[in-house]
Amino acid sequence: MIPRSRTASLLALGAICLTGCASEEQPVQKLKPLALKEQVSHIVKSADGYAVTWAGVLSNANPWHFGEHVVATIVGHDAKGSEVLKLDQPLDAVPPGGTLPFTGQAVATQKPAKVTIQYRPARWRPAARIPSAFQRFPISRVQTMRQKDGTYLITGYVGNPYQISASSLVVNAMLRDKAGKLVGGGSTYVDDVKAGSPPRFILTVGGLPRGSQVARTEIAARTWGSTGRPYEDLALSGAVPVHTVKPTSEPFAVDRNTQVASEHKQ
Fold first, then answer.
1. Does 259 fall in a domain?
2. Which keywords appear in this protein's UniProt record, sorted alphabetically (predicted)?
3. Is 232 helix (H, G, I), strand (E, B) or coil?
4. 215/113 Cα distance (integer angstroms)
5. Which residues contact 236 (CB under 8 A, 6 or more apart)?
6. Which of 12, 98, 159, 228 has the most CB atoms at less than 10 Å from its CB?
């Protein structure tokens, strides 16, 4: 039988341990902020004033979280430093461990001497699937054709790697020079993208300064919206199996695995 004094001591020690454990703070996972990897803008005189076009690439270094409700702010200043353009552009959700290319355009009544892109911090939300479940939408048969007016006509096809159809996707084209520097971009949309039936997209990129040399076009497609829910719905449905063609060779007369196993036992 345990003495009462020892029992009281044990209870007091247990209470101290519980209090100490409860007071310990749980480690909080630190998420890295989004990074604006690239940005470019151009200003061209137009009938309404000055046409301002821009393109940028946001990067998400967090492999398990969506960056949602992101808003880019495009600000233009004239030669004296006065603000002549300010526009908020809601962006699509940035996928876990991925990038978000985006483009836009606006008209300024006065000529900006400098245009910069800023953005508000994202709201982070854990992804419902592992990173490998968020597959890229395959792009094929891309053609980039320079037009007489200096614009670029870009065509191609976008596929769907998932079992259910994507109701709508945004397609971004980023133009680069020989050194890989971003020189401009454009966007368009495609609807009802089903696996095995890639729709064609057509978009035009304009507003580039004279003498711009485009050496490479990068195409990326994604679901659009301020949250990653549409992308998650596709990922939760599962990807289409890669091997769907029935084998044409004759089956083995004897199962080789069974034969090897029996020889090993002997």
1. no
2. Signal
3. helix
4. 27
5. 128, 129
6. 228
Domain count, the chain: 1
> Structural domain of residue 153, as residue ranges?
35-237
Q: Is residue 74 part of a domain?
A: yes
How many Cβ atoms from other residues are within 10 Å of residue 99's Cβ? 17
Phi-psi region of 265 (alpha: psi -120 to 50; beta: other; left: phi over 0): alpha
Is 249 contained in some domain?
A: no
Structure confidence by residue, pLDDT tens digits, 94-120? 999 999 999 999 999 999 999 999 999
Q: Using one digit for the tens of pLDDT, what is the confidence trace for 6-51? A: 555 555 555 555 555 544 454 557 899 999 999 999 999 988 899 9
* Beta carbons of 39 and 117 less than 8 angstroms apart: yes
Domain of 206, CATH number, reads: 2.60.40.3230
pLDDT digits 0-9 by tens, 214-264: 999 999 999 999 999 999 999 999 999 876 677 788 877 776 665 555 555
Whether 65 contacts 31, CB under 8 Å? yes
Classify residue 17: in a domain, yes or no.
no
Dump the DSSP string for 176-217: E-TT--EEEEEEEEEEEEBTTBPPEEEEEE--PPTT----EE
> 55 in helix, strand or coil?
strand
Element housing 235 (H / E): helix 229-237
